[in-house]
UniProtKB/TrEMBL annotation:
Keywords: Membrane, Transmembrane, Transmembrane helix
Superkingdom as given in the UniProt entry: Eukaryota
Name of the protein: K-STIMULATED PYROPHOSPHATE-ENERGIZED SODIUM PUMP PROTEIN
Transmembrane domains' residue ranges: 153-172
Organism: Salix purpurea
Length: 183
């Protein structure tokens, strides 16, 4: 009721602004209600429905972000888009936005945490083509040998931590079994 008092153009601008920041304020549980109240845009037949406008604004916001903790927060909250019906152009725009954060070089130089969060979001939202994407990325990483030492080091560290946690889990599960046998 209160939204109808605001002029239509101001409503549209308000909803576009909210689309950019709704994930930042941990309001992902209100997305469905937000999209149902989205005003009708005159170019909606070209762009798509409310979900398309929302994702377009969100992708634009992601590309403008430069602060790592905020970007990580957005990438962790983006799982709310899973299963959303989007037009092909909107889906491609979102893929391109997420894929731009996965490479170590480029104009933005995303950190390792941002790259992994972007890969996780990309794999969650677009599971089809996951393995070819990773294979192509690996191939292009091999073209830059100055990244090899850090990649190998991080791989070794992740293997060691995985083995360590597996051993801890094995020890604690064995201890719990012994306690169960004594009782």
């Amino acid at each position: 009721m209160r939204l109808n008092r605001i002029p239509v153009q101001a409503q549209r601008e308000l909803f576009l602004l909210l689309s950019r920041f709704i994930l930042f304020y941990n309001s992902v549980d209100k997305i469905d209600r937000f999209l149902k109240q989205f005003p009708i845009f005159p170019n909606a037949f070209l762009v798509g429905g409310p979900a398309d406008f929302f994702v377009i604004e969100l992708a634009d916001q992601l590309q403008k972000l430069k602060v790592e903790p905020v970007l990580l927060h957005y990438l962790s909250q983006i799982k709310v888009l899973q299963g959303m019906e989007l037009r092909m152009t909107t889906s491609t725009r979102l893929k391109a936005c997420l894929y731009s954060f996965t490479s170590p070089g480029g104009p933005m130089f995303p950190t390792r945490a941002v790259r992994h969060a972007a890969w996780d979001a990309l794999d969650l939202l677009f599971p089809v083509g996951r393995y070819p994407r990773h294979l192509i990325s690996l191939f292009f990483r091999l073209l830059y040998p100055w990244y090899w030492p850090s990649s190998c080091w991080n791989f070794i560290i992740s293997c060691i931590t995985a083995v360590f946690y597996s051993l801890l889990r094995l020890l604690f599960s064995g201890r719990d079994k012994l306690r169960g046998a004594k009782n």
